[in-house]
Design a protein that fits this description.
Length: 84
């Protein structure tokens, strides 16, 4: 997925989860060591929906409502990228 799509996904997720401040810049970290991203011939992105070492993140991801909210925002970001 190009940088525009990555930004759309990140921005959609901020409705549920704050932007990460422990790694990368503005919630994004470029990785050259992940074959699933770097050797792909189709758009791809890995999304970290939280940090399990953070109690608030862990609580969000452990509950059904939190997981549903994250899934809805991921879908919204993809649909925005696709222009739908």
């Amino acid at each position: 997925m190009g940088s525009e799509g990555v930004l759309l996904l990140r921005d959609a997720l901020t409705a549920v989860e704050p932007v990460s401040d422990y790694l990368g810049t503005d919630g994004l970290d470029v990785r050259g060591d992940l074959a699933g991203l770097n050797l792909n011939t189709v758009p791809a992105v890995y999304v970290e929906c939280g940090n399990m070492r953070n109690a608030a993140d862990a609580a969000l991801m452990s509950g059904e409502a939190g997981r549903q909210a994250l899934a809805q925002q991921l879908a919204a970001g993809v649909l925005t990228f696709l222009g739908r």
